[in-house]
């Protein structure tokens, strides 16, 4: 399967990618641990089947200090003992926020209450934005058939303003 278009070398695609990257820089200003952000992005990317994004976020999670065991168990986090209650709340938000078409209720009140129990308003705003942005990135990757396996940490640094 070959990629359909390289958005990074296309004028419009590069502009959109730059803006998505800069939104993610704003999200990173919140006091959410980088490793948690990567796990949330990894879970949404797994659900959406974006090989490129799975590559990016497994690599970045490892660089943020996550162990191979925890990274591998993200796909089965509900059946794992290695995640805290706060991480479970964030992963539930990622799943429910990603599976909007699959669930008539969107994010459940129970999940929202768990998120509110563990995170302050700025962290919640960052988590919600993170889920929205990774889903947008996943769609770009899946639609254009971006392949996993070639991510180079730091390759997006040139996109920042």
List the helices and strands and how they pair.
Elements: H1 11-27, H2 34-48, H3 51-63, H4 68-73, H5 85-98, H6 109-118, H7 121-144
Q: Describe the biggest sheet?
A: none
What order do the SSEs take from the amino end to the carboxyl end, as H and E?
A: HHHHHHH
Strand content: under 5%
Q: CATH class, please?
A: Mainly Alpha
Q: Give the fraction of residues assigned to helices.
A: 55-70%
Mean pLDDT across residues: 93
CATH topology: AhpD-like
Helix segment tally = 7
**Spatial gap, N to C terminus:** 33 Å
- Would you identify the regions where 5 or more consecutive residues have pLDDT less than 50? none
Total strands: the figure is 0
Which architecture does the CATH hierarchy give at level 2?
Answer: Up-down Bundle
What is the total number of structural domains? 1
InterPro entries: AhpD-like, AhpD_core, CMD-like
Protein name: Carboxymuconolactone decarboxylase family protein
Organism: Streptomyces gossypii
Pfam families: CMD (PF02627)
